[in-house]
UniProtKB/TrEMBL annotation, chain A:
GO terms for cellular component: plasma membrane. The chain crosses the membrane at residues 12-36, 91-112, 119-142, 148-173, 202-223, 257-278. The lineage of its organism: Bacteria, Pseudomonadati, Pseudomonadota, Alphaproteobacteria, Rhodobacterales. Keywords: Cell membrane, Membrane, Transmembrane, Transmembrane helix, Transport. Belongs to the binding-protein-dependent transport system permease family. This is Carbohydrate ABC transporter membrane protein 2, CUT1 family. The keyword Transcription does not apply. Residues 86-276 form the ABC transmembrane type-1 domain. PROSITE patterns: ABC_TM1 (PS50928). GO terms for biological process: transmembrane transport. It comes from Cognatiyoonia sediminum. It is found in: Cell membrane.
TrEMBL record, chain B:
It holds the Pfam family BPD_transp_1. CDD domains: TM_PBP2. This is Carbohydrate ABC transporter membrane protein 1, CUT1 family. Gene3D superfamilies: MetI-like. It is a multi-pass membrane protein. Belongs to the binding-protein-dependent transport system permease family.
Length: 293, 343
């Protein structure tokens, strides 16, 4: 309902527009700056003398003969073999998301359909587990994993990430399943289906929106993880986030900071694409937990 | 749902959580009671032309085999908890007796590694969380006032700081505040002090980390509040306006009470997430000035070749106790709600 009073430019509106503009700049400028700068040489990206160098690439032009250079990307992807970490990350992320959604949907469905008290307490326990700082869990894994000789390999990390993912996945899927009417699967059971058949033939076809949203967050958790992958993977199995961290030490000494900048930009691109295509799902996922209180 | 069916449905996820979340906590508790073996020393006598000298050397083989036999180390009871690196009861007692003023006492306590980390972690948690709540609500209200066509792009841009990997997001800011980076150089130019560095002093480091924390958590609060604003009943708003309430009054008495459950939800998530602050310290290379509880555990574990499991275990248990303190109010509240509900 837009009345005249609302569509006029009131002072309040001006203030809020300015406020939003400031926030949008704060949120986007670091990314734009770094993406632009990753195509320059270090002298431009970190140019004390004149910040406009970073925009026009004065030194980049002197050193490489062009205003844009792919040296940073070449260094990161080829010389430092960043592509290996990308493969490792893809494996870890793919299996973490698939496994945690599979066992999460089963668990979340059961929690949503069980009327008993223990379902509520299981959710509370999951909330407590969600609050555990990951590094405290990691310090519990290290010694046993070394002893059993399963430290450093991808399957171990995948299963750990799946477990750390579960509390959140359960909460989210539980609230999505609550929104699917009980009558649907109960009708199927009256017709003679077992509980699992009802789940398989009635619930699975309608659960995809919730599963996709939850999957996005599982993806983010696995992709963004530093603590677990840094501590549990050997050097040859490193994923991209620990790889970037290990760049920092070596790159700064050798003056190859631009490799790290290029790697950082490369690591951000998938996330950027994700937000672009799934903005609505991410927003609905963030609010799903909130609306339920 | 029948108990038996429920059990089979929940089994995979429950066993994953028990094996990799509950069990590690037990394992950490056990580790914290043990301490690393001392190195096995051998004394050898070297006799040369100028007499004999005794040399003490580490018997590497014996040390290694001892470690192999008992990887946990030797039993140490609660000593790890009370040593200087953790609760440091002896040191605190001594400072209590020797210092005259409160400030002197606190500055001595903050020199102890555990209390220093605790101080940073708590400051970070309890500064970032309220800022995120207030600014998040402000942005949500402001965006809600925008014409429709700007809302989508604003939300898109706003999601970026939250969705980006914490380590990467912090690095991006770290490069910008570098003395040669755009923000760092601009600050030097504004203050006219070419040696100004945000990384040099403790207080500036803390400010930098807290600013990063707010920047990266703000989108979450914003999105949740924004969604909440869409559900404010328009009749109540109109009624308030007819009764002569100003914009500010209806905000204060209608909108904020309506959003109260969301405030609790956001605070809970924020307290949990901020308490484990860790990656930004790595990215900002701020460990000389700011350490968090997670960071000191990490530091014990990356000790090359010889991780300090005992020390890391003790810090972990103390951290978990801290998390428990944060969660107790929430759990009590939920428990009360649950009991008051007719089942």
């Amino acid at each position: 309902m837009a009345t005249k009073a609302q569509s006029r430019l009131s002072p309040l509106k001006v203030v809020s527009i300015i406020f939003v503009i400031i926030w949008v700049l704060l949120a986007s400028f670091p990314f734009l700056w770094t993406v632009w700068g990753s195509f320059k040489v270090q002298g431009d990206f970190f140019s004390k003398a004149d910040w406009t160098n970073a925009i026009f690439g004065v030194q980049t032009l002197e050193q490489t003969g062009s205003r844009f250079t792919l040296d940073g990307y070449y260094g990161a992807w080829v010389e430092e073999e960043f592509w290996r970490s990308v493969i490792n990350t893809s494996i870890v992320v793919f299996f973490t998301v698939t496994i945690s959604l599979t066992i999460g949907t089963l668990g979340g469905y059961a929690l949503a359909r069980s009327g008993y008290k223990y379902a509520f307490w299981l959710l509370m326990v999951a909330l407590v587990f969600r609050a555990m700082p990951h590094i405290t869990l990691v310090s519990g894994y290290l010694l046993p994993f070394f002893e059993w000789n399963i430290w450093g390999i991808l399957p171990t990390t995948i299963i750990v990430l799946v477990a750390i993912n579960q509390p959140f996945t359960l909460w989210m899927l539980h609230s999505f399943f609550l929104n699917i009417p009980k009558d649907m699967d109960e009708a199927a059971m009256v017709d003679g289906c077992t509980r699992f058949q009802a789940f398989r033939h009635v619930i699975i076809p309608v659960m995809w929106p919730g599963v996709i949203t939850t999957g996005l967050f599982s993806f983010l958790l696995a992709y963004n993880d530093f603590t677990v992958t840094r501590m549990l993977l050997s050097q040859e199995n490193e994923t991209i986030i620990p790889k970037i961290q290990s760049f920092l030490g070596s790159a700064q000494v050798e003056g190859n900071v631009m490799f790290a900048v290029a790697a950082v930009v490369s690591a951000t691109v998938p996330l950027f694409i994700l937000v672009m295509f799934f903005q609505r799902q991410i927003v609905s996922g963030l609010t799903a937990g909130a609306v339920k209180g | 749902m029948k108990h038996k069916t429920f059990f089979w449905f929940i089994l995979p996820t429950l066993s994953a959580m028990l094996l990799f979340i509950a069990l590690p906590i037990v394992s950490v508790a056990i580790q914290s009671l043990y301490i690393e073996h001392e190195q096995v020393l051998v004394v050898t006598e070297n006799c040369g032309p100028f007499g004999c000298t005794e040399a003490t050397a580490v018997d590497l083989e014996a040390t290694a085999s001892l470690r192999e036999e008992q990887p946990l180390g030797r039993f140490n009871g609660l000593d790890t908890y009370t040593n200087r690196a953790h609760l440091a009861f002896a040191e605190i007692g001594e400072s209590w007796n020797t210092t005259e003023t409160w400030s002197a006492f606190f500055s001595e306590v903050l020199d102890l590694p555990f209390y220093w980390a605790l101080a940073f972690t708590l400051t970070y948690t309890f500064v970032v969380t309220p800022f995120v709540l207030v600014l998040g609500l402000a942005i949500a209200v402001a965006v809600n006032n925008l014409p429709k066509m700007f809302k989508g792009p604003t939300i898109f841009v706003s999601l970026l700081p939250m969705i980006v990997t914490p380590l990467v997001g912090a690095l991006i800011l770290f490069w910008m505040v570098d003395g040669d980076g755009i923000i760092g150089a601009t600050l030097q130019w504004i203050t006219g002090d070419p040696t100004l560095s945000l990384k040099a002093t403790t207080s500036l480091n803390w400010v930098m980390l807290i600013v990063y924390g707010i920047w990266s958590s703000l989108p979450f609060a914003f999105i949740v509040f924004y969604a909440g604003l869409q559900t404010v009943p328009s009749e109540t708003m109109e009624a308030a306006m007819i009764d002569g309430a100003s914009k500010w009054q209806s905000m204060r008495h209608v909108v904020v009470p309506h959003l109260m459950p969301l405030v609790i939800f956001i605070s809970l998530i924020q307290l949990m997430d901020n308490f484990r602050v860790f990656e930004p310290i790595i990215s900002f290379q701020a460990e000389a000035h700011a350490r968090s509880l997670s960071w000191i555990i990490y530091n014990d574990l990356i000790e090359a070749g010889n991780p300090l499991y005992g020390s890391a275990g003790a810090s972990s248990i103390l951290t978990i106790i801290g998390v428990a303190f944060l969660l107790v109010p929430v759990l009590i509240r939920t428990w009360r709600d649950f009991n008051s509900k007719p089942v």
